[in-house]
Design goal:
- The protein is mainly α.
- The protein is built from 8 helices and no strands.
Length: 202
């Protein structure tokens, strides 16, 4: 793909890995599927939109597949948000739909990564042999010209990547930890140990 690595690949990878891990967590604990479906589907929608310019500029023959993947990510994300909105109308059906939506988003991500990995391996092999990554130059794409990835400096992509990973991979999990429960249990246990005249000392 003719895209700066920070503005496309870093941001794209951060979103894709987050979606994958959220799917795994939803399989570990099914209640998390409903609880965290909003960020999951928003991440899918953002990833689909973010990948559209790169898919259009793809010269490796995968343009139709990547555009289909973008459409599936956005469409499934919107469907998932609608399912969440109407969840309590029919909870059993909504749970079934959420599972289907999570699965579709994850499979699309995995399939797209499968198509991208060979090119990434080839790029690193080329760097090992020549000492530098192959450059397509600064010329605009012959059909689509410059994309937003090219127009923005790569420090923008790096900043988004670092901000997203720090916020979603580190700060958010810490905020989700319920630190109050152990304290409440301690207070309850202390409360149950009240000494009275009827309390046996031995």
């Amino acid at each position: 793909m003719r895209t700066p690595p920070c503005n496309f690949m870093l941001v794209h990878s951060a979103l894709g890995l987050t979606i994958l891990f959220m799917m795994i967590l939803s399989l570990i604990n099914q209640t998390w599927r409903k609880r965290y479906c909003k960020p999951f589907f928003w991440f899918a929608i953002i990833e689909g939109i973010h990948a559209i310019p790169a898919s259009l500029a793809n010269d490796a023959g995968f343009k139709p597949l990547f555009l289909l993947a973008c459409a599936l990510l956005v469409g499934t994300g919107v469907w998932g948000l609608e399912t969440n909105k109407r969840y309590f109308d029919n909870e059993a059906r909504a749970e079934k739909h959420l599972f289907i939506q999570y699965t579709v988003v994850t499979i699309v991500n995995s399939f797209a990564a499968f198509l991208e990995v060979p090119n990434m391996i080839s790029a690193f092999k080329s760097k090992t042999a020549d000492g530098t990554f192959h450059s397509h130059g600064d010329e605009p794409h012959k059909v689509f010209g410059h994309t937003l990835y090219d127009a923005l400096p790569e420090k923008v992509g790096m900043t988004i990547f670092l901000g997203f990973t720090i916020a979603v991979w580190f700060i958010w999990p810490l905020l989700l930890l319920d630190l109050k429960k152990p304290r409440q249990n301690e207070e309850n246990s202390n409360g149950n140990d009240t000494v009275s005249e009827a309390t046996r000392l031995l």
